[in-house]
Amino acid sequence: MPENRKATARVSRKTGRRHPLATVALLAIGLVFTGGAYAALSATTASAETDIASQQTIDEGKKLFQANCATCHGMSAQGTGNGPSLIGVGAASVDFQVGTGRMPMQMNGPQAQQKPVQFTDEQIKQFAAYVASLAPGPAIPAPELVDGGGNAANGAELFRINCAMCHNVAGAGGALTEGKFAPELTNVSGVHIYEAMVTGPQNMPAFNDLNISPEDKRDIITYLKYVQDNRSPGGFELGSLGPVAEGLFIWIFGLGTIVALTVWITAKSN
């Protein structure tokens, strides 16, 4: 009997013993958990750093501003006789004007002309961070508001009501008074379209969130992206200038062809 008890105890000890790889498995699980938690924390921190400009970014933006913009806008962006004050225009305005090449202006005229961008994306963000630090103003929109994932049908209706009288229903642009014009929108990024809506550059009115909500602005961008990606199913667009251009085409080429054909038939019959 004593020997049987000893054998049973030995079996019990063997049954309760952990596998040699159990320790390795526990360490691996711990490392995976720790790494995942660190990655999530790092992503959150990076996101916060992107949203909130650091003092270093603001300082770099100030140096760039005073070297490139102070002649017109003043050393502290207070404005001069050559350019308006930028205090309170916000980061969105700077990102739009510099990011589309409109600023620095090449020459005086009815409105700033779009041209190749003069600065890198990092420098543009530094400009924007500095101006935004001077006073509250419209911020650069969040990525989810300019991704083109909204309601294109609602965006088309809003665009026709608020924008088509200047930019054309297809976003092809149009002429205004005194040499000014509404630019074409088919090749403009969603970020710059949103920034234009909230800042009102040139002769464009500003649409704050009470006029057009951020979701509706997203829908407008979605509609313009749809127009850009889905060209006219009817064939040649004639510049998307609407019924005037289409009617003129019919009068000149359609009726002209009929008249020429009539003359040719008459000449043959004689």
UniProtKB/TrEMBL annotation:
Coiled-coil intervals, chain numbering: none
Database matches in Pfam families: Cytochrom_C, Cytochrome_CBB3
Subcellular localization: Cell membrane
Keywords for this protein: Cell membrane, Electron transport, Heme, Iron, Membrane, Metal-binding, Repeat, Respiratory chain, Translocase, Transmembrane, Transmembrane helix, Transport
Broad class of the protein's primary localization: membrane
Annotated EC: 7.1.1.8
Membrane protein topology class: Multi-pass membrane protein
Catalyzed chemical reaction(s): a quinol + 2 Fe(III)-[cytochrome c](out) = a quinone + 2 Fe(II)-[cytochrome c](out) + 2 H(+)(out)
Residue span, Cytochrome c domain: 56-135, 150-228
Transmembrane segments: 248-267
Record bears the keyword Lipoprotein: no
Top enzyme category: translocase
Assembly and binders: The cytochrome bc1 complex is composed of a cytochrome b (QcrB), the Rieske iron-sulfur protein (QcrA) and a diheme cytochrome c (QcrC) subunit.
Protein name (record): Cytochrome bc1 complex cytochrome c subunit
Organism: Luethyella okanaganae
